[in-house]
């Protein structure tokens, strides 16, 4: 869980922030590139979300962060982020989200196939994801 007292100084002012527990895996920058970038070897909030889509993507990054280094100053409903996973990428390939620190935030994918499904890498256990798969 991100801690406001450990907020990195490179974050722009506003509700979303990254704290010093960030391992610079790049997950937030991949999921929400309009909101996160890199500064001084860590991810940071470079722009506060302005649209519903930017906010949704920032919340998806928050729940996917392997070290839970992303936080908000206000209390947020995370259901939109949880409900977004698994996220269809193309055809029958899904991004699982919920990256694990045990794999340095590696991206996990679920591939639905008639001949047997595939799970590539392992996401962090989250009950809402397990219930959907």
- Overall strand count: 8
Question: What about the largest sheet?
Answer: 4 strands, antiparallel
Main-sheet strand order equals 5-6-7-8
Low-pLDDT parts are: none
Q: Report the average pLDDT across residues.
A: 92
State the helicity in percent bands. 10-25%
How does this structure look, described?
The protein is of the alpha+beta class and 133 residues long. Helices cover 22% and strands 20% of the residues. It contains 4 helices and 8 strands, in the order E-H-E-E-H-E-H-E-E-E-E-H. The protein has helices at residues 27-31, 52-64, 79-83, 127-132; strands at 16-18, 36-39, 42-45, 70-72, 87-90, 93-95, 109-111, 118-120. Strands 5-6-7-8 form a 4-stranded antiparallel sheet, with no helix packed on it. Strands 1-4 form a two-stranded antiparallel sheet. A two-stranded antiparallel sheet has the order 2-3. Strand 2 (36-39) and strand 3 form a beta hairpin. The radius of gyration is 15 Å and the shape is globular. The mean pLDDT is 92.
List the helices and strands and how they pair.
Layout: E1 16-18, H1 27-31, E2 36-39, E3 42-45, H2 52-64, E4 70-72, H3 79-83, E5 87-90, E6 93-95, E7 109-111, E8 118-120, H4 127-132
Antiparallel strand pairs: 1-4, 2-3, 5-6, 6-7, 7-8
Overview in brief:
The protein contains four helices and eight strands, in the order E-H-E-E-H-E-H-E-E-E-E-H.
Top keywords for this entry?
8 strands, 133 residues, two-stranded antiparallel ribbon, 20% strand, alpha+beta
